[in-house]
Amino acid sequence: MPEEAYYWNYAQRPSLGYYDHPPAVAWMIWCTTSIAGHNDFALRLGPLCCAGIASIFIYRLAYRRWQDAHAGWRAVALLNLLPIFASMGFVAFPDAPLMAGWSAAIYFGYRAVETDRIQFWLLWGAAAGWAMLSKYTGGALLLAAGAFVLLTPEGRAQLKKPGIYLGLLTALGLFSPVVWWNWQHEWMSFRFQFAGRHSRGIHFNLPLMLALEWAAVTPVAFVLFVIAAAAAMRRREWQDRWMAWQFWPIFLVFAVSSFKEQTHINWIAPGYLSVLVLVQDSLTRRPDQAASLLRWRCAAFRWSVALGAAVICWFSLYLAGILPKNAVPAFIAHKLAPQFFWKDIAEDVARLQSKLLSVSGAKPFSLAVDKYYLASEIAYYDPDRDCARSTSRNLVGEKALAWDLWTVPEHFDGRNAVIVGFDPKNLSDEQLRPFFKSLGPIQTVEANEGAPVGHGLLYRFGYGYQHQHGAGGPCAPALKKDMP
Q1: Least confident residue range of 60-69, 331-340, 365-374
Q2: What are the two backbone dihedrals, phi and then psi, of residue 418, each rounded to the nearest 5 degrees?
Q3: What is the pTM of this model?
């Protein structure tokens, strides 16, 4: 996926921070690809390991809470078979290390309150710190722990002990390199993720957010999860209130955010981890409950797992090319179509670079004029493994996320470029003329077999690139800080 290729490009440029995320996903990819080589399996080895780590901690938490191995295995089944979780354990996104850190944090925090042992608070701090190094939403763990500590008697008892403070210092200490990096780069990542997102006007998206969560968690499981999290807030047992507080802060924060902007389905996902454990109580009969109610809940659980597994298998078979192209709705097929052709597109670009080299005698570079998809994929599939010759639209004055930091326009002055994109407007003379001494005609790369209409690659040759002041985009003042 383009995002995975984008994060692979993170890993080729090790850092303590990046334009739009903390660094854990880059460290994860760098480790696995250093061990297993440059291939798709190595890229996804990290997420698979993170899914295994999350499964271990969720099993341990469920077993400890209910003293029942079956509850542990049911929680693990939900974790690995519901679509919203399964995708995070397979693709190389920041969500994978976030889920591992989050699951460890809720387990170690549970054990810290249970045992009053400082080492568990330190482990909670380490896990929370890792979650924040993975994604900024990991900070919701501090909010969740704070809510539990301030709003429950068992939590307030922790305020008289040093463990919670040492754990907090551990978490903040691990996260401090990201703060330092942002300070060195004019707070660009914080500004992008927080201030930038809230300066785009008001768009009421709460119904859409709930609908997407309902679909991604599966309808039955979503209802069971919300009921379980609400019921746990009223129980006497602190264990259930601890786990409920791991869900409600992140859920409510993004529910409120949806009054102003669109939220993504994966943003709330970590909060469901503790609810996987809570919902196990509804699958065990209590003396005051009717047997018919238990049967309904167990049937709902089985259907949730079956539905989730069916959706995952269906899309896996589709993406593997086993199912026909009409096996998914047309609008989804069109969106997913490029996933089948990114490698071919990168090879086309390499061929065009060779053609331009033979004509001009000078080594060209590729200039992808979309946001970041093409540049990232071309670099990932570059047959010469020379990611430095792939650039993005920041060279022509447009924002391109982290590519604004990775490619300094001045370094390409005088060189020729293979300019590629899907939208002819982005390759127009009006857009490109100020940056090149001369331009060739816009042409179409012959579409790959099976590619739908609208996915043909456009290209043109640009001769004699010349940067303009401010062409590096919004990050131009900080560019040189990231260069060797």
Answers
A1: 331-340
A2: -95, 110
A3: 0.89
